[in-house]
Amino acid sequence: MNAQMELEYGRRKIRTARLILRPLTIQDLADCHALRQEEEVMKWQPQGRPDESLTETAEWLVRRMTQNDSLTYGIELQDTTTGTQSRRRVIGLVASHALDTLPTCGIFLAPKFWGRGLATEALTAWLADWEREKLRRRSAPNNSNDHDQQETTIEPAPTTSTTMWAFLNTENHRSKGLLRRCNFNYHAREDKMEAGRSICVESWVWRGTRQQDEQPCLQP
User: Fold this and answer.
1) Residue 45 needs a FRET pair 20 to 30 A away by CA distance; which of 25, 106, 173, 176 works?
2) From which domain of life does this come (predicted)?
3) CA 49 to CA 168: how far, in whole Å?
4) 142-195 residue pLDDT tens
5) Cα distance between residue 79 and residue 20, in whole Å
6) Which residues pair with 21 in a beta bridge?
């Protein structure tokens, strides 16, 4: 699967066969609130519950839009017959944080869109974009303006030392299946406290396009 990058609001937008991934804006508040009201989605999030109000979602959205070490993209369906957005509606999110220290990602979709391979498609494209951009910044830190003015096809980078982490509840079997499909490997597990509850958390690691074949896949 190839994905194309183009600009939206001065930042990259990622287009896949069926999806558009783009940075969130404040206009996405209602869609984000609807997503964060889904019990089957939010029970696996660190807070362990749906947002209690639109204000709580708004505070979360503002944090995601303004933190320097995080990046959150909305996932939209596109009209596959025309290649355009079928409607401006966010059906899921792919997010990262601690990009300068311990890069960590997460993804979720509204339950009505489960079982169609959309999460795999979105996360695969997002990882390819993140890896390529990280390597580009290492090799050509002064060419960001030139890069941002181009539409590009995302392809696996030739070499990489990039690493992305994912942390999840050990009972979240659906997400573990997604991570396996996206070439994450199980790393470890530990008990910890989240939102006043004790849970077992697993760590999974994605080591970039060149390192995936070199790492053993441990089974939890």
Assistant:
1) 25
2) Eukaryota
3) 15
4) 544 544 434 333 333 333 458 999 999 999 999 999 999 999 999 999 998 877
5) 10
6) 14, 75
Q: Rounded to two decimals, what is the model's pTM? A: 0.78
What is the separation, in whole angstroms, between the first and last Cα of the chain?
Answer: 29
Residue tagged 């029970």 (tokens): 43
Say how many C-beta atoms besides its own lie within 10 A of residue 188's C-beta.
Answer: 11
**Residue 141 in tokens:** 């830190």
Assigned token pair, 72: 């959150």
pLDDT value at residue 101: 84
Find where tokens 């009209």 sit: 79
Q: Where are the beta strands (DSSP E) in the chain?
A: 3-8, 11-15, 19-23, 71-79, 84-85, 92-97, 104-109, 152-154, 164-169, 185-194, 197-206
- pLDDT for 218 equals 45
pLDDT under 50 in the chain at which residues?
A: 1, 7-10, 141, 143-144, 146-160, 213-220
Token pair in block for residue 134: 């990280």
Domain definitions of the chain by residue range: 10-135+161-213
